[in-house]
Amino acid sequence: MPKNRLKGTYCLIIQLKSQQNIKIGRLGEIDFKRGYYVYVGSALNSLKSRLERHLKDDKKLFWHVDYLLNNPDANVEDVVFAVSDEKWECSLAAHISKEGSEIHAFGCSDCKCPSHLFYFQDLEGSKRICLESFEKLGLKPLDLSDLERL
User: What count of other Cβ atoms lies within 10 Å of the Cβ of residue 82?
Assistant: First the structure.
């Protein structure tokens, strides 16, 4: 498979620098605490392009996470991902939900999960659970430093 067509599952680790009430598409207004959020997603077409899109500041608001990332106090602190032809998004979200507080209905309009966004108070805890969750599923976690090699 050509490198630009790699498939995979990812976690965006997002810092929100202040408490915010943010309108998230059709979900409406959601109160977000100051802290860190893990968003679980997948790209079954082009993983690198999807991750690069999430990291851009200027983009059309399409997915729930776009609305969160559009807030000037929100930024992607890190990305953890794995290359795989299988869709691990829901399994990964289930693992992360054991430690994070879910933001109800966020990012899961195409599945039966309660959420694909989870709140954590600190960066270390959010990154640790991401890495552990990928490993529990038998996936090799990669991070932002690996993105250029894709």
Answer: 21
Residue 53, φ and ψ in degrees, nearest 5: -65, -45
Euclidean distance between CA atoms 124 and 36, whole angstroms: 10
Q: Which strands form 35-43's sheet, in the order they lie side by side?
A: 101-102, 117-120, 35-43, 8-16, 74-83, 142-143
Residues in the chain: 150
Q: Can you spell out the DSSP letters for 47-67?
A: HHHHHHHHH-SS----SHHHH
Report yes or no: 21 and 74 within 8 Å, Cβ to Cβ. Answer: no
**pLDDT tens profile 6-43:** 999 999 999 999 999 999 999 999 999 999 999 999 99
Q: Is 79 exposed, middle or buried (0-12, 13-18, 19+ CB in 10 A)?
A: buried
pTM listed for this prediction: 0.95
- List all residues 6 or more positions away from 82 whose beta carbon is below 8 Å from its beta carbon: 8, 9, 10, 88, 134, 139, 140, 141, 142
